[in-house]
Specification:
The chain is an alpha+beta fold and 91 residues long. The protein has a domain of 61 residues. It is built from two helices and three strands. It has a three-stranded antiparallel beta sheet, with no helix packed on it. The chain is extended and about 70 Å long.
């Protein structure tokens, strides 16, 4: 499995005929656009999961979860700028 970090409007090409464009989103939701030939079957995971009625078969389906926050040692340090000025502040 490949895990990528992408920016808005970046895209992935799968073979020569499938393009997945990342349109942006919010914290928990992501909007994508898929450009693929009509012959390619594209189905949401929830649809596939709802079609299976046997609990044992449902348990075998792969589950993907968002990764928890990274440890502090793996986070990028933000550049914080503090500007100190001298002078009188009048109110």
């Amino acid at each position: 499995m490949l895990r990528l970090t992408v920016s808005t409007e970046e895209y992935l090409m799968i073979d020569d005929n499938i393009k997945i464009v990342f349109l942006g989103g919010t914290k928990n939701h992501l909007r994508i656009m898929i450009d693929a030939p009509k012959e390619v079957n594209i189905v949401r995971s929830t649809v596939l999961e709802n079609q299976i009625t046997d609990p044992e078969e449902k348990a075998k389906l792969p589950k993907y979860y968002a990764e928890p926050e990274l440890d502090e040692k793996y986070r990028r340090k933000k550049n914080s700028r503090v500007i100190i000025t001298k002078g009188n502040l009048e109110s």
